[in-house]
Every structure is written in C-alpha cells, then in structure tokens.
Design brief:
The protein has 273 residues and is of the alpha/beta class. The chain is 43% helix and 20% strand. The protein is built from 11 helices and 9 strands. It comes from Flavobacterium caeni.
C-alpha cells in the first residue's frame, strides 16, 4: 500500500493537466500512486495522458456526471493510505512537499491539513488554517482539499462525496466527519499546494448555489443549528462585507468573523432567557 494516493481530475484543461502532472512527478518522495480521472476531454488532454502513461498509476478518460462523480471514481480506484486531490491547474508548493508531509503525518489522525497559496489571475496570497476546527469555523469557512490528506478508509467508513452537489460536497464531508463524528484531525505546519482559484467554487455567479448546498448540509446533519446559521448568513452577506470594505481590510474582516463567532456562542443563551 503506498503512503499517498494523488488524485487529479480533469476536463478540457490540457495546459493545467500538463502543469499538475509535472508537479506530481517532480516530487522527491516516491511512495505514492498517481491517478488521473479525465471526463472524456476533447482538447488534447488524452494525448497528454498517453505521453505520461508510464508515470501515471491509473488513468481513465470517460464521460462523468460532474466534479464529485469524477472524484469518487478516483477514491474507489485508490489504494493509498491517505488521499490528496490535486486537480488540473493545481500544484504542489515545491518538490519536497510529500517528503515533508510524510515526516509530519504520524498516522494517529484521519485528516491532516496544511496551508495553501491561493493563486488568482493577477495576484496570490498565503492562506493559513487554524489548529482547532470548530463548528463556527465551518459556518463561514472550509478546508482546501488540495492541502488536505484524508485517510482513504474514512470515505468507506462513512460516505463518498455527495454527487447531487456541484460545489459543497467536500465541505459537507469535512463538516460531517469533523463536527458530527469527531474524527481526529491535525493541522500540519506545511504549505502544501498552490491552489488555482479559477474553478466553479470561486465563481461569484455560483455563490448562491454554494450557500444553498451548505445550508442543505447544515439542515441534514445539524438541524438544531439551522436557524442560527441563517442569522450568521445575513451577517456574512456580500452587502455587509461591502459596507465595511472587508475585502480591502483583512483585519476588519478578521474582527467581523470573531464577532460572528461570539454571536453563535451566545444565541442559544439569549433564546433561553
């Protein structure tokens, strides 16, 4: 059994696929398998897979029903102890990432997550994650799966990604396993990936869909907190952010998130009084 299963999903992004393959095969740590799930691309991606066949453990190119259907195909085919998703266009931060991760992953936890470089067309920023993940954190945030190593068996002990969702399935999985089941997790001091922030989840036109799917997950697994979440959603609304110029003032946004967490903490007490 290899230590890591690296799963790359791709659809008509041959340039991104080429970069991701280069990043994976450039890792100095070699105890991994590399799986590429292509959605029957027509842009030359299949040719790239053919060119790199000797470096890819498992590859398939066939129609799928969406991102999470493709990811689930990869999960089912994987054999490694821990899975990490590095989709087309995403890169490991440097050639030593897997070697460093191997030293930091002690096997005592089911989820290990590091930090990322979020890359936009004209900018990039270093995003760090907290050591402690609370339910309040998942109200407004999510882990980046390009920087997260998930024990493969965890999917089969609970469930694979929800293929009815287009954006929030990985968020739902983390919300359920960490906040509902309480699986052991650990933040590792490592910048894992350079995350290509141009996908569907970062597109403003899908913002409402993302929120609706998150709300559906809250109502499914934490119905007792659904009303509180709706209050928080209003506080976190785009217009509220614009009012305080949150995007331009990171410290103000940090303080606002802290205030929201306090609201969540005291809401149940207020209701009882």
């Amino acid at each position: 059994m290899p230590k890591f299963s690296i799963i790359t999903i791709n659809y008509n992004d041959h340039e991104g696929l080429k970069k991701t393959i280069g990043s994976v095969i450039g890792q100095t740590f070699k105890d991994y398998e590399f799986l590429v799930i292509d959605g029957d691309s027509t842009d030359g991606s299949k040719h790239i897979l053919s060119q790199n066949a000797s470096r890819i453990t498992y590859a398939v190119s066939e129609p799928d029903s969406g991102v999470y259907n493709a990811m689930n195909k990869g999960i089912r085919a994987a054999k490694g102890e821990f899975i990490i998703f590095m989709n087309s266009g995403d890169l490991f931060h440097d050639p030593e990432v897997l070697a460093k991760a191997d030293a930091l992953i002690d096997g005592q936890h089911d989820i290990y997550y590091g930090d990322v470089i979020v890359k936009k067309p004209n900018s990039e920023r270093h995003k760090t994650y907290p050591n402690k993940l609370t339910f309040a954190y998942f109200y407004t945030n999510a882990l980046c799966h390009q920087a997260t190593f998930i024990r493969r068996q965890l999917f089969f002990d609970h469930f694979l990604y929800n293929e009815d969702y287009k954006i929030y399935s990985d968020g739902e999985f983390f919300l359920y396993t960490i906040c509902k089941i309480g699986v052991p997790y650990k933040h590792i001091d490592l910048t894992v990936a350079i995350y290509d922030f141009t996908g569907i989840s970062s597109n403003p036109k899908y913002e409402k869909l993302h929120e609706d799917e998150r709300m559906a997950s809250i109502e499914k697994f934490f119905p007792q907190f659904a009303d509180d979440y709706k209050v928080l959603s209003k506080l976190n609304a785009k217009r509220t952010k614009q009012l305080f110029h949150i995007e331009n003032y990171p410290m103000a946004w940090k303080l606002t998130k802290g205030f929201m967490s306090l609201v969540l903490l005291f809401l149940p007490k207020i209701k009882k009084s």
